[in-house]
From TrEMBL:
InterPro entries: Epimerase_deHydtase, Lipid_A_modif_metabolic_enz, NAD(P)-bd_dom_sf. This is Nucleoside-diphosphate-sugar epimerase. Residues 6-204 form the NAD-dependent epimerase/dehydratase domain. It comes from the Bacteria.
Length: 302
């Protein structure tokens, strides 16, 4: 039986981390991207079939541009499913927490998928497509859901350059949202470790899992960790809803944050106990260690 693990979107932050984790565990890896060593356009059926050929497990770490999720994500997912089905492989989706919409209390996997904003509805449809394909026996599928992430290589994230690069430059490190509300944040190598575990375990199939993460932290606590590692006089600020609306008039990326502001103005905590019970003990990096490694990466990469 093949031990080929295929990573789609292998040049993205999560994809790179998954490739590194698979390699560390001794798996045969095919890293797929548009312009990498194995180049394929997985938005086309032909490209997806070629990318997935011979795979035992496929990790879906590619996605449409964030602003085009609502328009493109479901069709993109159907194309990827065609490639995975043709290979007779298992699909592991790198997922997020949008499907639930605003809730009171910690997020658990059994909560209904009632998100009513465009990107949330797209994620609901995508997850339904995967689970339907699994029930129909077309593919084996599982999903690993993570919160906002940070870590080496984490550039296109709210906890990236505006925190780490800014602090290293002696500028104000900015947290998107209320500085004093607890928030689950995921460390990229931990996300990758969780996804690979789902790929290795048959008992992960047919459902979504919240990937293990460190303890929830407030923005103030997280930025304090960053400045403690950087040294110097701390400079921190929170980006509130009003400023987000103003900046969104000029910055389309900031504008997109409005849809999920409910994740930023109240406690936003993901319960990962189901994963820990099923697959534990698990490796989770302390935020202090994760911050140190992320700062080291930003130093090395300017």
């Amino acid at each position: 039986m093949s031990d080929l693990h295929v990573v789609l979107g292998a040049t993205g932050a999560i994809g790179k981390a998954v490739v590194a984790e698979l390699t560390a565990r001794g798996h045969e890896v095919r890293a797929v991207s548009r312009h990498g060593s194995f180049a394929a356009d997985v938005t086309t059926t032909e490209g997806a079939v070629a990318a997935c050929a011979g795979a035992s497990v496929v990790y879906q770490c590619a996605q449409p541009p964030y602003a085009r999720w609502a328009a493109e994500f479901p069709a993109f997912t159907r194309t990827v499913l065609a490639g995975v089905e043709a290979a007779g492989a298992k699909l592991v989706m790198a997922d997020n927490l949008y499907v639930y919409g605003p809730v009171d209390g910690p997020l658990t996997e059994d909560m209904p998928h009632v998100a009513d904003f465009p990107k949330g509805r797209a994620r609901v449809e995508v997850d339904a497509l995967l689970l339907a394909a699994h029930r129909e026996g077309r593919v084996r599928a599982t999903m690993g859901r993570a919160s906002d992430y940070y870590g080496p290589g984490g550039l296109n994230t709210t906890i990236g350059p505006t925190v780490f690069a800014a602090a290293l430059a002696g500028k104000t490190a900015r947290w998107v949202g209320d500085l004093d509300k607890p928030h689950t944040v995921s460390y990229l190598p931990d996300v990758a470790a969780g996804l690979v575990t789902l790929g290795e375990r048959d008992d992960a199939d047919g459902r979504a899992w919240h990937l293990p993460a460190g303890e929830p932290v407030t923005g103030r606590e997280f930025l304090d960790l960053v400045w403690a590692a950087v040294g110097g006089k701390p400079r921190i600020a929170g980006l509130g809803r009003g400023m987000q609306r103003v900046l969104g008039l000029f910055n389309p990326v900031v504008k997109e944050l409005g849809e999920t502001w409910y994740q930023r103005d109240r406690a936003f905590i993901a319960d990962d106990s189901a994963f820990r019970k099923a697959f534990g003990p698990v490796r989770v990096t302390s935020h202090a260690d994760g911050v140190a490694a992320t700062l080291e990466w930003f130093r090395a990469n300017g």
